[in-house]
């Protein structure tokens, strides 16, 4: 019986990831074909170390990590000045609350970043537990974030559904023993996902009740 739902943040609740990709393209002054999304997407869903190394290489080492972070953060924030939730997200949160499910969030980003957007959207009220990079030593694909949420809920991992958009997030959710629904975004849609339980193009594809029913009858 499903008792909880756990959401990723970046790329799932808000498509911060495509905005970040565009920001890197702007900083590097390259077109999208010069930094293929499929290649870039492999670095999504974990900490920024490998991604920044990749961007430095793409700049032919013209830019340092510090230069890239400073310039990209400014552009990224401008692009997200008026953030919009992905289709169906708010419906899922409202339904989960109406059904009496526990609602968690597991993000590899820091707490300030995550909560600032949740507050702007009016979504923070839905979450019973929020775990971010501030709460663990290892972020996704390590399962620690999900394990912390499940421990706080006091339920079995199999009684929760994780919603993820990246391969690293999927590995973390599966590694913690949760059921996992993949909802890719424009950056991650062409990644090879393995081991997921259900895939949706958008949360508009199926209602949360339909998704839960799918797991409860398995």
Key traits:
218 residues; alpha/beta; Rossmann fold; 2 domains; 42% helix; globular
Order of helices and strands: EHHHHHEHEHEHEEH
User: In CATH's first tier, which class of the largest domain applies?
Assistant: Alpha Beta
Rounded to the nearest angstrom, the radius of gyration is 17 Å
Number of helices: 9
Name the strands of the widest sheet in spatial order: 3-2-1-4-5-6
Distance between the termini: 10 Å
What structural class results from the helix and strand content?
alpha/beta
Which architecture name of the largest domain does CATH use? 3-Layer(aba) Sandwich
Mean pLDDT: 94
Beta-strand fraction estimate:
5-15%
What does this structure look like?
The chain is of the alpha/beta class and 218 residues long. The chain has two domains: 4-15 and 84-216, HAD superfamily/HAD-like (Rossmann fold, 3-Layer(aba) Sandwich), CATH 3.40.50.1000; 16-79. Helix content is 42%, strand content 11%. It has nine helices and six strands, in the order βαααααβαβαβαββα. The protein has helices at 16-28, 37-40, 49-58, 65-79, 89-98, 111-121, 144-153, 167-175, 208-216, and strands at residues 4-7, 102-106, 129-131, 160-164, 179-182, 198-199. Strands 3-2-1-4-5-6 form a six-stranded parallel beta sheet, sandwiched between helices. Helix 8 links the parallel strand 4 (160-164) and strand 5 (179-182). Helix 1 packs across helix 4. It is globular and about 55 Å long. The mean pLDDT is 94.
Topology:
Blueprint: E1 4-7, H1 16-28, H2 37-40, H3 49-58, H4 65-79, H5 89-98, E2 102-106, H6 111-121, E3 129-131, H7 144-153, E4 160-164, H8 167-175, E5 179-182, E6 198-199, H9 208-216
Helix pairs in contact: 1-4
């Amino acid at each position: 019986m499903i008792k909880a739902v756990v959401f990723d943040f970046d790329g799932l609740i808000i498509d911060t990831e495509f905005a970040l990709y565009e920001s890197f393209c702007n900083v590097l002054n390259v077109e999208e074909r010069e930094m293929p999304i499929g290649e870039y997407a492999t670095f999504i869903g974990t900490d920024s170390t490998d991604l920044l190394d990749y961007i430095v290489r793409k700049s032919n080492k013209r830019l340092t990590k510090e230069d890239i972070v400073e310039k990209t953060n400014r552009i990224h924030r401008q692009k997200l000045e008026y953030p919009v939730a992905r289709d169906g997200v708010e419906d899922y949160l409202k339904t989960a609350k109406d059904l009496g499910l526990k609602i968690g969030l597991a993000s590899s980003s820091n707490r300030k970043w995550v909560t600032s957007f949740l507050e702007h959207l009016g979504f923070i009220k839905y979450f019973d537990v929020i775990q971010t990079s501030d709460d663990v030593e290892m972020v996704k694909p390590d399962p620690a974030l999900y394990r912390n949420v499940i421990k706080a809920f006091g339920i079995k991992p199999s009684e929760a559904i994780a919603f993820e958009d990246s391969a690293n997030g999927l590995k973390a959710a599966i590694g913690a023993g949760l059921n996992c629904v993949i909802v890719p975004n424009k950056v991650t849609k062409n990644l090879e996902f393995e081991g997921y339980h259900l895939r949706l193009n958008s949360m508009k594809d199926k209602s949360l009740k339909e998704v839960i029913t799918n797991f409860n009858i398995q």
